[in-house]
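Z., the sequence and structure:
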Amino acid sequence: MQAYKQITDEINLNQQFKMLTQAYQEHAIVQINLARFSVLASREFMGELAEIFYNVKKSYELYLKSLTGKEKDQHKERIKKNGKEVLVLLSANGKFYGDLVTKVSRLFVQQVKDNPDADVIIVGSEGRIFFENADTGRPFTYLTIPDTSITLDMLKPLIQAIIGYQRSLIFYGKFNNIIVQDAVEGSITGDMPTDTKIKIQENEDFLFEPNIEFVMEFFENQIFSMLLNQTVSEGKLARFASRIKAMEAAQNNLLKQLGILNRKSRRIRSMESNKKQLQLFAGRALWNKK
């Protein structure tokens, strides 16, 4: 009976795990239904903004090169960028997101090793744990953002941490569909994002109203925040899609395990039943002899 009790306990435990994975999966489906339309609908628009930002920044760099003498010195006094590059990891605080968080973190760590002069910012406890275990020896700034119900106010600490850098690369998960999510990197500071096909206007002249400095300042503040918000939303959508896939795989494994345990349980019950029958027959035989 001890073996039967152990099998029964394992069956109950696996059934509880199955209920837990179903709850996580249903929560992920709700989150995707809330975010999927808005993220995908704004993806193309934000890609076009990133394209414009790139061309504005290139024009601004040409403008800076054209300055000489006193104009150049006066402009330097207004520059707020620190001239450095920052690498930003958008991770998660919770678990059960499949392998996506690990893939993004692995891509991030490799870039940190390849860019020894860049500063490092990590968002999310899972990314921090991965980075610390990678033992890069690099200092980093750690920030937290909720996995759900993210507002622009919650992004302000991250915005303030990034906005002073000349160049930023953000590492996050990108949603393709429920089955496929990619680990990607992209820029929100007017550099060419690796996941956006930007039309480079090398030989085009642009007219800026009222002037290039005003337009550049607008992009570095307002458009920068919009692009960051879109990137964070992309990462959230990809994580919950990865969770659905992971929970589906977990449920399939649990069903297989429950099948094995149920067969063992039936076998043990059958053996116990046979044992009782043998004991009953043995008892009758003894009484008949008497």
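The chain has six helices and five strands. Residues 212-289 form the longest helix (78 residues).

Let me know what you think.
H.
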